[in-house]
Amino acid sequence: MLGYDKILRYVLYAVCLGVIALILSPGSAVWRKDEVVKVPAAATQPIKSETKPEPVIAANPPEPKIAPAPEPAIPANPPVTVPKLIVPVSGIGPQQLHDNYSDARSEGRVHNAIDIMAAQGTPVLAATDGVIRRIFYSERGGNTLYQLNSYGNMVFYYAHLDRYADGIVEGKAVKQGEVIGYVGDTGNAGAGNYHLHFAIWTVSDPKKFYNGDHINPYPLLR
Ligand SMILES: [Zn+2]
């Protein structure tokens, strides 16, 4: 005879087995959860792959770079200040200078420079620090020398040189007071009219260093 106890026990076993079978069945919630998780995971991947092409829109970063660009252009203003100069002829003091900056020249030209009188062969000195930009012979200037300042926006021009100092070549850096040449009368200075023709001008493009807005050197050498 089966007692109620045994019947209840079998019923409980049956219920437990049923529950276990339900849990382990492929369609149970246990497996569905995994599948449900897998599906969204797989679903997000294509979304990611869709977003990958978007980085091309990362062309945004360059825009902020364009914005700060104007700033470097601003520093061009302060350096235009003329540095402290020395009289570029050895042994000549500021009191010996004459302001002939505005003198008329042939063909309606204006002098735009000062002539510093000195004996032939007197050392010509760099008026300031800079770089020898160009040395060449011209009909008017004779042996000429163009010195560019370190900012590349100001030129110091020396003309009628008898000759250049040893070692003076284009591209050479020179210090203020360094001998760059010697006083002469080459070009249209006039035979025996030994002097240094000295001019200063500002340039907007270092490549076009040969002309610009002239500055009177006279007050700057006093
Ligand atoms: Zn002159």
Please name the defining characteristics of this protein:
2 domains; 26% helix; 23% strand; binds zinc ion
Structural commentary:
With 222 residues, the protein is α+β, with helices and mostly antiparallel strands. The protein folds into two domains: 4-34; 94-221, Glucose Permease (Domain IIA) (Distorted Sandwich). The protein has five helices and nine strands, in the order ααααβββββββββα. It has helices at 4-24, 29-51, 62-66, 70-73, 218-221, and strands at residues 114-117, 123-125, 130-138, 142-148, 154-164, 173-174, 179-183, 195-202, 213-215. The chain is rod-shaped, with a radius of gyration of 44 Å. The N and C termini lie far apart (136 Å). The structure holds zinc ion (ZN).
CATH architecture field of the largest domain: Distorted Sandwich
DSSP summary: helix tally: 5
Strand fraction equals 15-25%
Distance separating the two termini: 136 Å
Beta-strand segment tally: 9
CATH topology name of the largest domain: Glucose Permease (Domain IIA)
Shape: rod-shaped
Order of helices and strands: HHHHEEEEEEEEEH
Q: What is the makeup of the main sheet? A: 9 strands, antiparallel
Furnish the topology, listing elements before pairings.
Blueprint: H1 4-24, H2 29-51, H3 62-66, H4 70-73, E1 114-117, E2 123-125, E3 130-138, E4 142-148, E5 154-164, E6 173-174, E7 179-183, E8 195-202, E9 213-215, H5 218-221
Antiparallel strand pairs: 1-8, 2-7, 3-4, 3-6, 4-5, 5-7, 5-8, 8-9
The structure holds zinc ion (ZN).
